[in-house]
Structures are given as structure tokens and as C-alpha cells.
Amino acid sequence: MPSVSVYLNNTSIGTITNEQGLFTINRIPSDKFRLVVSSIGYETYVNLIDPRRLPVELIITLKLKSEELKDIVLTPFEPDGWAKWGKLFTEIIYWHQPQFHSMSIGKSGSHQIQVKCG
User: Fold this and answer.
1) Which residues is 57 bridged to in the sheet?
2) Boundaries of domain holding 19
3) Among 62, 96, 98, 111, which has the highest number of CB atoms less than 10 A from its own CB?
4) Residue 75 belongs to some domain of the structure
5) Structural domain tally of the chain?
6) Which residues make Cβ contacts (< 8 Å) with residue 59, sequence separation at least 6?
């Protein structure tokens, strides 16, 4: 995976993965350190690494982050919506713009608003 952030926690040592998802970090400390790997949409990987036991190749798999949306409220179509909100629309949005003064607006069908220039 390209452009994944890889760094040693509490240091300024880090990099990002290349197009093939590979990375190299130089100047690894001789003491244990936490390797942090993160990317948007994925769970952050954190692992304590002992450089004396570091394998030549380290394969890291990031897990997709499971996101939970807040409640969504769906409201049905309002049959008299134009009667209720049409005046507000024309007063605030429509008539406050000088270029719209020569336009007329009206209801067309049950779900659409038609704008006519005249």
C-alpha cells in the first residue's frame, strides 16, 4: 500500500511507503522502540520492536477501520413542502440576488421546482 506513514514512536525518525508498499528506515536505535504504521481508513499498527531480534523482512498487515456512523434520520417527502418552504426560499435565496429579479419560479409536478427566466 503506497503513502503509508511509518515512524518510530517518540522520535523524528520515519518515512512513508513507496508505490509497492515498501519502506526503509535508517538510524534505528539500539534500544527497543515502538514502530507505528498508519494510514487513513485503517487501524494504526503499533508494535514494540527489539532491534537485536529484528527480521530482515518485516511484513505488516493493516486492518480496515470499522467506522460506525451516528444515527441518520430519514424524513418522508413533504406533500405541502412548497407551500411551507417556498416563501422562505424566494425571500432569502431568490430575491436577494439582483440577477434573479427578472426570473419567475413555480412548482412543476410533485417533486421538482422549475425556474423560468423571463
Assistant:
1) none
2) 5-53
3) 62
4) no
5) 2
6) none
User: Please, is 82 exposed, middle or buried when counting C-beta atoms within 10 Å of its C-beta (0-12, 13-18, 19+)?
Assistant: middle
For residue range 22-80, what is the model confidence (pLDDT) as tens digits?
Answer: 998 888 888 999 999 999 889 999 999 998 888 878 889 999 887 766 676 766 677 77
My answer on whether 13 and 49 are in the same domain is yes
Phi, psi of 22 (to 5 degrees): -100, 150
Q: Which three cell numbers stand for residue 36?
A: 507505528
Alpha helices in the chain (DSSP H): 81-88
User: Dihedral sign, CA of 77, 80, 84, 85?
Assistant: positive
pTM: 0.56
Are 87 and 48 in a shared domain?
no
C-alpha cell belonging to residue 7: 515512524
